[in-house]
Automatic annotation (TrEMBL):
It comes from Amphritea atlantica. This is DUF3144 domain-containing protein. Gene3D superfamilies: 1.10.287.3020.
Amino acid sequence: MLESDFFEVSDEFINLANDLGDEWAQPMLSASIMHAAARFNAFHLMSQNDTGDINTAIDFLTTQYKQMLIENLRELRSDQPDMLNHS
């Protein structure tokens, strides 16, 4: 998988979420995106011939999510400091 393809697909989901933001609140969209990702990943894991250790897969996915969330928060904090200072 090419990194550019990865970000292109990610941007498609972000664009869809931004479009849906005209009609739905951000907390609803955030929860819906997490639910959709969990559902898709569960289907993906179960559809593989060798599902292996499900707990290992869950640990991997949750670790990846946490790392991506931290990375994106750091980026936002450095690129747009006012965005995170609402108090």
